[in-house]
Amino acid sequence: MTHSNPQILERALADFADPASRSSYFDLYSPDIVLHGYDGVEPGLENVKRFYEGIWTAFPDARVEVEDLLEGGDKLVVRFTLTGTHGGPFDGIPATGKPIRLPGITILRFDGGKCVEHWSVADFLTVLGQIGALG
């Protein structure tokens, strides 16, 4: 049974939000995934895993709400909001217990039911302000 790209993403985001099934989130990606827009994240699934594990360490209850989803050919465009609680170190800042809302836009390119490229723009500066790191 094949699933549409939006269905694949929906399932992955459900796993993203559930600590018991978070490892299944990575089924979304091909082994040679390229994540654009996040400095220091080299191509490859292991590097993408490290990036998201850092997000989950900083925001253990992180979840992604899809605000808008547009599909065109092999791409999905997603306007999203990531929410969570600052429960671990983030960018060198110890946990504050404060809630965060991270808005962003992502473009995912699929090939054979797997995301092979992922471009994102997310407002991490807003998150730093929300956790009191900007003074």
Quick structural overview:
The protein is of the alpha+beta class. It is 25% helix and 38% strand. The protein is globular and about 50 Å long.
Q: How many independent structural domains?
A: 1
Assigned CATH architecture: Roll
- Low-confidence blocks of residues: none
**Strand composition percent:** 35-45%
Q: What is the overall shape?
A: globular
Structural class: alpha+beta
Strand order of the largest sheet: 1-5-4-3-2
* Amino- and carboxy-terminal Cα gap: 52 Å
What does this protein look like?
The chain has 135 residues and is α+β, with helices and mostly antiparallel strands. Strand 4 (99-111) and strand 5 (114-122) form a beta hairpin. The protein has helices spanning 5-17, 45-58, 124-130; strands at 29-36, 63-72, 75-85, 99-111, 114-122. The protein has one domain: Nuclear Transport Factor 2, Chain: A.
